[in-house]
Amino acid sequence: xxxxxxxxxxxxxxxxxxxxxxxxxxxxxxxxxxxxxxxxxxxxxxxxxxxxxxxxxxxxxxxxxxxxxxxxxxxxxxxxxxxxxxxxxxxxxxxxxxxxxxxxxxxxxxxxxxxxxxxxxxxxxxxxxxxxxxxxxxxxxxxxxxxxxxxxxxxxxxxxxxxxxxxxxxxxxxxxxxxxxxxxxxxxxxxxxxxxxxxxxxxxxxxxxxxxxxxxxxxxxxxxxxxxxxxxxxxxxxxxxxxxxxxxxxxxxxxxxxxxxxxxxxxxxxxxxxxxxxxxxxxxxxxxxxxxxxxxxxxxxxxxxxxx
Length: 308
What we know:
It is built from twelve helices and twelve strands. By secondary structure, it is an alpha/beta fold.
């Protein structure tokens, strides 16, 4: 546990997990010093568009599915006699200040409902190199010129790129890889920035494709020769909520996540940012995606600890 609250930067590559390869050295370097694992998602509804999927999965990541359903008109305040849950991040997490940068118009509208400051991604990029953009992202968190500033900063910044209705191209993944390199060069171990920055790289698979269930399964299969032992194999924690089995858990194509903060996160044995390496050597295993923000908020001193 750090002696001061962290500042969190989340780099979210929607649909990028399929396209990370050996050339993306900065992502692999990040994984090699990080705590790595998976975020499990619910199944996609039938006939869901790419844009709807992108916003829904982002809502899951923020544990804001009630707000998403409200926005789509699937529920109304009159549908329940219970008080509606608090919607904004500030209300939910002790005044948390959060910003998001994205080009997805639907995601901008949804994020605004959650109390995010919606910043213009194109204005930030503006033809700048990834190294310069990395500096600008750190400035939003009050991390500037090697110092940690206490005035006028965000606690949490999301940098969202990819997918929706758009096709992911190799250049997008390459840019995010370079951005990771630029950020890590500023957050050297032992530096003021390195000690306060909590960095998360999150990559999803985007829309489900045929064969994904066999390529990217997160549930361990019981040996068919000992199938009678399957009754002894417990339901995994990502399939539970409040001691009750979750009704809708997709057992494949999770989000991949690597998290790093100097002297705070535990390094595991993963060496590459890949499904196979996280499955074999990752230390975080699988947690429900809707617990992600709660874990981040704890690092920011904005919420109690979730889980062990």
